[in-house]
Amino acid sequence: MMKKRVVVLKKTEGSGVRTRSRVGSVVHYVECRKNHAAKLGGFAVDGCREFMATGEDGTEEAFICAACGCHRSFHRREVNAEVVIEYHPPNPNH
């Protein structure tokens, strides 16, 4: 599972208004789409419903599915994104 997070801090000159945005996304690899019958002119998938890495992150085995043996690129990529915006009103003491 790959997780990417971006944090932006912005201050508007003179107003004292600050906003902070966080964007996070989680990537999952779900059902396998490899067509095992392509050589015969047909269409058949193996039924693997979710990618499970064979090895640890950072190794070549992390890209091979333990359930079906296919490379991760054959599995459909699904991205779940989360955006959080925080607003901080101007501080009258500054």
Question: In words, what does this structure look like?
Answer:
This protein has no helices and three strands. The two termini are 44 Å apart. A hairpin with a 6-residue loop joins strand 1 and strand 2 (18-32). Residues 8-13 have low confidence and may be disordered. The chain is mainly β. The radius of gyration is 22 Å and the shape is elongated. The protein has one domain. Residues 29-78 form the ZF-HD dimerization-type domain. Keywords: Metal-binding, Zinc, Zinc-finger. It holds the Pfam family ZF-HD_dimer.
What overall geometry do the principal axes of the alpha carbons give?
elongated
Straight-line N-to-C gap? 44 Å
- Helical proportion, percent range: under 10%
**Number of DSSP E strands:** 3
Structural class by sheet pairing and helices: mainly beta
**Could you tell me the strand content as a percent range?**
35-45%
User: What is the C-alpha radius of gyration, as a whole number of Å?
Assistant: 22 Å
Low-confidence stretches: 8-13
**Major beta sheet, strand line-up:** 1-2-3
Largest sheet: 3 strands, antiparallel
- Please give the oligomerization state of what you see: single chain
User: What does the average pLDDT come to?
Assistant: 79
Count of spatially separate domains: 1
